[in-house]
From TrEMBL:
Source organism, top-level taxon: Bacteria
Residues annotated as signal peptide: none
Gene name for this UniProt entry: tcrX
Domain Response regulatory as annotated: residue spans: 9-123
Name of this chain's protein: Transcriptional regulatory protein TcrX
OmpR/PhoB-type domain boundaries: 131-228
Organism placement in taxonomy: Bacteria, Bacillati, Bacillota, Bacilli, Bacillales
Length: 230
């Protein structure tokens, strides 16, 4: 379970009140400091004074859409993690957002747990000093040292193994396809074969002693899912 998120500021920008209410309540309960707006122009103005670590942007908003807000925030040069919410799982929208500097995206409808995991991933990548060590079941992720401890023992991992295992852990319980793993770990412009994921999964299982695939499960035709013991 993640340590308290006290002091981490999140700005929510969405023109759907029920989504704002749902996310504000959930993130506040997780310890985040949260402010909300319902249009893109207010998001840009509030970001200047609130100085959020994470901005969650809906693509379709009045005043200025999420793409334009993302561009304006990134042009300011501040270290802000931008996660875009979109109702369309279209490659063109995804590529456009990433090109403008978005750090991640979530397709509606989504679970709160998925969004929380993606926020945690961005914080680890861009603000590791805010979190320090983060505990997930038998794992401890220390992004400052680029180390993962399993059952209190530091694992020997290559940089790619580290990023892959971290991605799997923070998405505990979520099925991740090879395409998604390649996108988030190797990068959306990776030109290699999907089978590289299988090679690295096999290596991680060996290092975890996961011979029966109880920790990193394979869901045939769907992808992989980490199931952390209670």
């Amino acid at each position: 379970m993640m340590k308290p998120n006290k002091g981490i500021r999140v700005l929510l920008a969405d023109d759907e009140p029920h989504i704002i209410q749902f996310l504000e309540m959930g993130l506040t309960n997780e310890g985040f400091e949260v402010k909300c707006v319902e249009n893109g122009i207010d998001a840009v103005h509030l970001a200047g004074s609130f100085r959020p670590h994470v901005v969650i942007l809906d693509v379709m908003m009045p005043g200025a859409n999420g793409f334009e807000v993302c561009r304006l925030l990134k042009d300011q040069g501040d270290n802000i993690a931008v996660i875009m919410l979109t109702a369309k799982d279209e490659v063109t929208d995804r590529v456009k957002g990433l090109t403008l500097g978005a750090d991640d995206y979530v397709v509606k409808p989504f679970s709160f747990e998925e969004l929380l995991a993606r926020i945690g991933a961005r914080l680890r990548n861009q603000f590791p000093d805010l979190l320090g060590e983060v505990v997930h079941g038998p794992f401890v992720i220390d992004d400052r040292r680029k180390e993962i401890l399993y059952q209190q023992t530091v694992m020997t991992l290559s940089p790619t193994e580290y990023e892959l295992l971290k991605f799997l852990i923070i998405n505990n319980g979520i099925v991740l396809s090879k395409a998604v793993i390649l996108d988030r770990v190797w990068g959306y412009d990776f030109g290699g074969e999907e089978n590289i994921v299988e090679v690295y999964i096999r290596s991680l299982r060996d290092k975890l002693g996961d011979k029966e695939h109880r920790l990193i499960r394979t869901l045939r035709g769907a992808g992989y899912r980490v199931d952390l013991p209670c």
